[in-house]
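Contributing: when you submit paired examples, paste them exactly as shown. First protein:
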Amino acid sequence: MPFPPAPRVPGRLSASDPGWTTRADVVVIGSGIAGLTAALRLRDAPDVGTVLVVTKDVLNAGSTQWAQGGIAAALGPGDTPAEHEVDTLVAGAGACDLEAVRVLVTEGPDAVRELIALGTNFDHSPDGELSLTREGGHHRDRIAHAGGDATGAEIQRALIAAIEVSPEIEVVQHALAVDLLLDAGGGVAGVTLHVMGEGQRDGVGAVHCRAVVLASGGLGQVFSQTTNPAVATGDGMALALRAGATLRDLEFVQFHPTVMYLGPESRGQQPLISEAVRGEGAFLVDSDGRRFMQGEHPLADLAPRDVVAKAIMRRMLETGEPHMWLDARHLGAAFWERRFPTILATCRSHGVDPVTELIPVAPACHYASGGVRTDLWGRSDVPGLYATGEAACSGVHGANRLASNSLLEGLVFSRRIAAVLPGELRPWSEPVADRRRAGLVPGSARRELQEVMTGKVGVLRTATGLAEAVEELTALAGRTADVVDLESWETTNLLTVASALARAAALREETRGSHWREDFPERDDVRFAGHVDVVSDDGAPTLRLVPAPATDPSYPTVVPT
């Protein structure tokens, strides 16, 4: 039976005509580490007059504040960018862009030092040195952290503090970016927003601009259980795809192996048990107390996330158990209170005391390694549109993100965008009439969409399940919303990225990194050493496999010991 065609999704979101307009040289969509870093750097560029930051909720509501483990960089004695590069490439399972990785690891240390100079208070040892720890996939202690396990929150605090004393940067909160406005050449001319407030159901306006920096985060809410906040509905990726940008490697969705299991009916954002807990000595066991990661990988419990997530899923299937256990009791109360106070409080709030009890854990959607395809300077293939952070596919992560590289990626590549964007600012242009097919699916379809994606496009994937998922997503695409509201906009964005993700997962008939095909259990470097790109023509997606460039001789092919 031939694989079903991809669902046709709306070419643009149904929305009323803009009721207000404003102007800014650059619009930054998103307020995490990627967006705020870009805004702060652009603020100081002499050729940029005005910067407008748009965030769907409040400034600190995105994914950055939830980052527990830390930020990775070669800052410790004896560590080098070359060693960080090797660990990143190994975790990426042959799908990383080597030059992008080298940019990340070589520019990363100075970027972190600049973050410290901005006012970020990282943890230090008693002798005053930066405190560094280790996470899965790393062969060195190179994870800088803050507040024990509140690194993202501290970075977010420092960035917001800098924004608040920057009158040159205008901030619009509670605003959804609806669609890009395009000029006659297909370049950025502006963006439509819906500003949400009490009693406002139709606050649509237009911001005319010369460039847009997309830093809107990931797509975690595509799945029923995720570590992502509620705002992570793939809005930026969907907006870019509708505007003509290419999305790359959407099939590489990282499922974090140790997410606290709250029961079969729990939905939405779930509590993350940071990989740093295993970095400090915790280990996984099954219901019989057996340490099943022993022998699975040279790093055992500190193996890359895809390896650990697969091992947990296999053990769950073998035993019929809905979760495994994380044993961190031996760390002791004092260590828990000092190093992981946030996780300790979260576990206790759910009735588990990790000082004396095992923590129930299971994989859940965590991070999208794919996104808007960019070059080494954050440029997309839509003139005037740049992307950074989780919304982008810079080539750094490949098939599986190395722990704590995400904050670093947003930091490094936002700095790079700010370095080139001022010299590339396009002339002001007028948006042309939007001829794309407008549409909207009802917000009530979200739960069904999430169930389809979790059950058939989650950790375990097969051709049969993926084909069924595409058929069910096609049925959802045929529904029409009765009202135009935030829930329908978000659900339509989720459907847009979910449809592309499911088709990309079907095309990649191999197991690589975070993409696990039960019917193709081996990695296939002959057929699939490349990327899956998605483009859209008025809502009709086209996928193609892009061969990888010739492999650099220094590219590691085995896990270092």
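Second protein:
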Amino acid sequence: MTKVSDPKRPVEDWADDIKPSFLIQGLLDSFGPGSKDTMSCSYCKDDGETIPADVWCSVCDDAFCQKCARVHNRIPATRHHDVTELSGEVKVRRKRKVMCGEHNEEHIKFLCKDCKRAVCHTCCTIHHRKCDQVVTIESELQTMKSVITMTRTKLSTKQEQVKEHVEKQQSKVQSETARHEQMESLIQSASRKAIDKINLKEKKLLAELKELSDQHIGQLKADVKSGELTVQVYQQQAELIDQALQSECDMDVYEMYQRCDTGDAEGVGDADLKERRRIARISFRQDSSELSRAIDSLQLGEIDVLYEGVMDLDASPVSLDTINPRVEGDGSATDPFDMTMLAADGTDTIVITDQYNNCVKSFYTRNSQPCQGRLSLNSQPWGLTKLSHNQVAVAVPQIKEIVTVGVNPDLVLLSTITTSKMYVGITSLTPSTLAASSQSPPSVDILDMTGNVLRSISPQLNSNTILQFPNYLCTLRTGNILVSDRGSNCVVCLTPEGDEVFTFRPSGETALKCPQGITSTCRGDILVTEISQHRVIHLTESGQFVGNILTDIKCPRSICVDRHGHVYVLSEGINVFTFLT
């Protein structure tokens, strides 16, 4: 490959600037048109004779017959040349002489190290007489071969490295293909299980409908049959009355009169029409909203992606930035409580709550400049959670409200939800449900988006309530709820149905002291801040202690992780860290 100095110029202007390729020229000299014949004597061929060659002179680069070889050996200038006997098994290694492109009659024998050009004697005299380092190519041959050999060794090493990398990647392709098939099978299995449950519910509902419908229709058919029989009886009685009236016998009239007087003729068949627990009507009542919520809440699973070079909690943390949480309009101090990170219309945006200034704030970059947003509220905001890529929900406990805020990335108040309790922590479970923590009484409630309590969770251990002061919440990728409780100094994992998955309450050196913010990564790792011990601890997804990933952070409160794997810790400022291998 050759780089053209100026492709816009005509070819004839820049073609001469391209350095010759001696390798290609050598191949042309050896095998191309006009390459020398090694089978015939060169001298005899010049005289018009074709005499088989017997020897080859690598210096003269010519083949000779025995007669011409004797002459060649008598000449003092050529008698010491390296001459090789030619045979069918001998391959001639021709020592090629490269001619100068400017001085066609001269061989290139010199090297100008200043200009880095191979030149002939005339070029040295005319163009390079002022250069300091003009040497023969032969004198530099060993050095050049040494450099070439080193380059060859490096290329071999790189070749082996790339070959090893390719083999590893091929192995990964096979394993990832198998993993894809396995995950595809798991998704299909989860889907089939959900479909099987729906089909089972459908069968039970249809069976119940059939049983009741058969009973109802059977009662109606019985009514029809009984009515038809009663009609026949009434018709027969009427005919008997007609016969009595037309009879010439007075006793026939008297007997019919007695039957009519006692009511026997009118009440026949009435008892058959009266039944207990008769079905009046069957209808199907469908709760579309509940069905929609159930479908929205249905979790077949989630696809987690771990990007190479994004985050490794085993690596040492690197501080990237510290953002001042103070913005224009704040009072004499700030008191940030909770934080989340979202990509509002593609812009990475930090959103925090500030209790001292009764507001929600956003921090983002626009046109390479740091920007801030601010939304004032009627009371102190506490916890907040991401609802979507450009919406958050904020708990305002003193006035028993949850407000939704649009993040564009400036802040806009969207709606206000009135609640029955003073909720402190909050996390989004599904698009239609929230989990919120209350401290009086201590519980975690499942709410719909209108504030209705769908379920209240207050787990107990040995008749004692585990939750005392649940502050911060987050939702795991499994759909379970993590609770950081500063009253009982523990981390609790709960299912949305209220079952306890695990409680992390260690003793000794790893004991929790006033845990605060809590979050999880895409791999399921759990991160918890401790305000009194100035650290961030790392737990596994099952609640096992791994270690401290950050220490000496003054009074850390909230914590979150963005889509790039950066960790944000809210303390006196917004501290940004990365964990790269």
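If you have annotations for the second protein, write them as plain sentences, like these:
The radius of gyration is 48 Å.
Confidence is low (pLDDT under 50) at residues 268-273.
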